[in-house]
Every structure is written in structure tokens, then in C-alpha cells.
Amino acid sequence: MNDRAEPGGWTPGGDKGQGRALGDPDDVAAVRRANADLYEAIERGDLDLMERVWAQPDEAADIICVHPGWMPLRGRADVLRSWALIMANTTYIQFVLTEDNIGVRGDVAVLSCEENILTGAEDSNAFVATGRIAATNAFVRTESGWRLWLHHSSPIISDDEDEDVEEP
């Protein structure tokens, strides 16, 4: 990661879609790794890893998860149940994360990013769908490291009309 700080304390990111970061470089790297663990758990369908990603009830005031189009889920049990349901019904998913921005203040960190998603069906080698999601993940520092306590994701709706307009 680039250690040059911009005005306001932001540090430009490196390659692979990394955006700006504010905070101690070691904390920023640890938060980025915790975020990667979240998406690795989803891609692998690994509920054990997903359980380790999320904070315990005594580590965060209120664990919250908002999946695209869902009502907010509160509490560790409901959040993990939702991920188990998603994993059970997803045969293939891959995330390419871009535009990440990280801010770390004390024992709290917020990471926003774009999730560029590829999904496929089990009975087909063919590509099925893509999508772009704006995500915000908030982490809390615990004795075990950085743990997720809030995940909020919403679809990015592109305006095709803007893309089709020709410049004069």
C-alpha cells in the first residue's frame, strides 16, 4: 500500500481497485483482510468462516445486515441464518471488489466498496448473471481482531440512457 498521505489524512490506494484509506496503515490492512474474509466466506459457501467474520453479541452493540431488497436483519442469529440461506441457494458466485474506501477511527472502521458480482447455475457452465452492488461494511476491533458488525448492500442501477447519449 502507498504510504503517501493526501490532505485530510487520506492515503491513495494501490492496485486492484483499492481506493482511499484513512487511519493507521496496519489497521487499514487488517480491515481490508477482514473484508476479504467476508467475501471469501460467501464465495466458498463457508458458514464457519462467516461465523468468524461477524462480531459476537458482547463485541458490538447491535449486529445488522441489509441484503439488497431485504428488510434489515438484527442480531447475530438472524444475520447468520440469512447467510446460510443465501449459501444454500447459491451454486456459484464470484466478487470483484472495486472502489474501496476505508476509514479507521479508534476501534471502529468503515469500508465502502462496489461489489461486481458474477453468478452461475449448477447445471450449466454458462454465465448466468452479473450485477453491481454498493456495499458498506462496518467493523469493530475486538480481542480477536477486526469483526464485522454491519453490512449494508444496495443495487447500483445504471442509467442506460446516459450511456447511449452521443456528445454533439
Automatic annotation (TrEMBL):
Q: Name one GO molecular function term.
A: isomerase activity
Q: Does the keyword Isomerase apply?
A: yes
In terms of superkingdom, the source organism counts as Bacteria
Region entry Disordered, spans: 1-24
Pfam families from the UniProt entry: SnoaL_3
**Keywords noted in UniProt:** Isomerase
Q: Report the protein name in the record.
A: Ketosteroid isomerase-like protein
